[in-house]
Amino acid sequence: MLGSLRFRLPALFLLGILLAGLVASLISIRFFQSYTRARAIDELRSESVGIVQLYAQQAGRESVPYLRLVHALGGDRVFWVPVARGVTLLQGIPDVPASTVDMKALRNGRPETIDLDWKGKSYLAVAQPLELGDNLFGALVVAKPMSQLRSRSVTLVERLGLAFGGGVIVAGLLGFYLSRRITEPLRKLSLAADEVAAGQYGVELPNPRGSDEISHLSGRFADMAAKLAESEQLSRNFLMSVSHELRTPLTAIRGHVSALREGVIGDPSMREASLGVIGEEALRLERLVGDVLDLAKLDAKRFTVLQEEVDMERLSERAYAAFGEEARRRKIDYRLDVRAKPVIVTDGDRVLQIIVNLLSNAFRWTPEGGRIELALSAENGSVSVAVADTGPGINEEERDRIFRPFWSRDGGGTGLGLAIARELAVALGGQLVLDSKPGRGSRFVLLLPG
Ligand SMILES: Nc1ncnc2c1ncn2[C@@H]1O[C@H](COP(=O)(O)OP(=O)(O)OP(=O)(O)O)[C@@H](O)[C@H]1O
Ligand SMILES: [Mg+2]
After folding, report:
1. 86's torsion region: left (phi>0), alpha (psi -120 to 50) or beta?
2. Which pLDDT score is estimated for 182?
3. pLDDT on residue 389
4. Residues with Cβ < 8 Å from 180, sequence gap 6 or more?
């Protein structure tokens, strides 16, 4: 609980606010203290000047008070008037030792500020010279108890504390609300991740279409879950298809073998036919296992391709020749169009495998009397081998599907041909693209680096 983001976020938020508030308060208290001290000194100064002038006037008018004053003050003595509230001149003022005041500074005309301690109380005081003509005979010290200054600071601290407390409560609530808004979708996302980890892909995700980072994460997570579900479905289908494809020839082989063993087939020509079927089905099994293995290796990127010089014209001719007989038999207008004669470094057998695959599909889907063209060309540093036919073409929805393993429109083939061809093309550094218009035939193009 304490380690969770739901707790840590608002806690961090509050801590930051507390620290910022504390620093701001300390700084403002310090400023306030120096401001009140400066103001108090100003006040004391003007008060002391006033009192000194008052004495000077009295001294000018009446000789007695002046003399009394001179007598009372006597020589280099310092007197002070503690001021509690405003200026109060107390009678019988106690004296302060002369050493407290820097008389030299006063003589030079500088009023002095002093921090005084008297009867266990501290005072802020200002000393003002008492002069008679040119004769400096003492100093008048006007003081203010420090506690008075402090009480102002205390009031400020109380108010600041109050404002601070209020601010912290508001910020705390805001922090709690904001962090909930941030962590709630994260919590939902993490619950969704738990479900996906447990194999439950149909999860509900928080606002995957918003514009913030969490929505983006949520959206990508939804895509990921969908891809995982699809890939699980694909691998399940793959396994089922492989077992199905393996079982069909095996069933045929077993049937013929047991018939032969039980002597059910007596006729030698029938026995020959049975053996022929067994041979063909075994070959089909071998091809199928080889294809599945190829696909698995291609998928795991553990497929090794040779690097040899390949004359693409000769290779195209070989592929073309393989279907010459079938074309003649089915009256298909079958052409080879060589527009360039590139020699490239690649794996010749694999390229041939891809072209033969494309041609075999074209022959499977092109009706009698149709047209099939194998064209070789080279441009912009890439070699292209195109197989075009006048079959039924491939519609929009099938465009991706036909490249998936075991997807076959009529179930006549294993559906591995194009899947392997595309992976092979990629392994050779090229690509296999489809350009087909439904009803007007298909055109598969193998592009290889030149
Ligand atoms: N030239 C084409 N014209 C129309 N449809 C095609 C053509 N080539 C491929 N297809 C479609 O793509 C599907 C997949 O082709 P692919 O070569 O992968 O498998 P297949 O031919 O059915 O089986 P395999 O090649 O493994 O014997 C085919 O079943 C077919 O529906
Ligand atoms: Mg095929």
Report:
1. left
2. 83
3. 97
4. 6
* Residue-level pLDDT at 77: 41
* Å from CA of 118 to ligand 2 middle: 110
Mutate to test the pocket of ligand 1, among 292, 372, 408, 416 (most ligand atoms within 8 A of CB): 408
Q: Which two tokens stand for residue 337?
A: 């169009």
pLDDT computed for residue 178 by the predictor: 86
Number of domains in the chain: 3
Q: How many CA atoms lie within 13 A of 200 on its CB side?
A: 9
Q: Ligand 1: which of 361, 364, 394 to mutate, judged by most atoms within 8 Å of the beta carbon?
A: 361
**Among 418, 423, 432, which is best to mutate for testing ligand 1, by the most ligand atoms less than 8 A from CB?**
418
pLDDT, position 137: 62
User: Which of 250, 274, 299 represents a domain boundary (last residue)?
Assistant: 299
Q: What is the CATH number of the domain that holds 395?
A: 3.30.565.10
> In this predicted structure, what is the pLDDT of residue 100?
65
Tell me the pTM.
Answer: 0.57
If asked whether residues 290 and 317 sit together in one domain, one would say: no
Q: Ligand 1 center to residue 358 CA distance, Å?
A: 8
Q: How far apart are alpha carbons 418 and 29 in whole angstroms? A: 80
The last residue of one of the domains, among 256, 281, 299, is 299
Range of the structural domain that residue 72 is part of: 5-152
Task: Please give the torsion angle defined by the CA atoms of residues 208, 210, 216 and 218, in that order, rounded to the nearest 10 degrees.
Answer: -30
* Amino acid identity at 148: Q
Measured between alpha carbons, how far is 288 from 315 in angstroms, rounded to an integer? 25
Residues with CB under 6 A from ligand 1: 361-362, 365, 389, 391-392, 394, 402, 407-409, 413-419, 442
Q: Are residues 413 and 437 in the same domain?
A: yes
17 and 106 in one domain?
yes
Same domain, 145 and 30: yes
Which residue has the least CA distance to atom 7 on ligand 1?
361
Report whether pLDDT(117) > 60: yes
Q: By mean pLDDT, which of 94-98, 177-181, 195-199, 332-336 is the weakest?
A: 94-98
Q: What integer pLDDT is reported at residue 168 of this predicted model?
A: 87
Which atom belonging to ligand 1 lies closest to the Cα atom of 412? 22
- Residue 2 CB coordination number (10 Å): 6
Instruction: Determine which residue's CA is closest to atom 19 belonging to ligand 1.
Output: 415
Ligand nearest, relative to CA of residue 372: 1
Do residue 246 and residue 330 come from a single domain? no
Residues 295 and 313 in one domain: no
Residues 134 and 244 in one domain: no
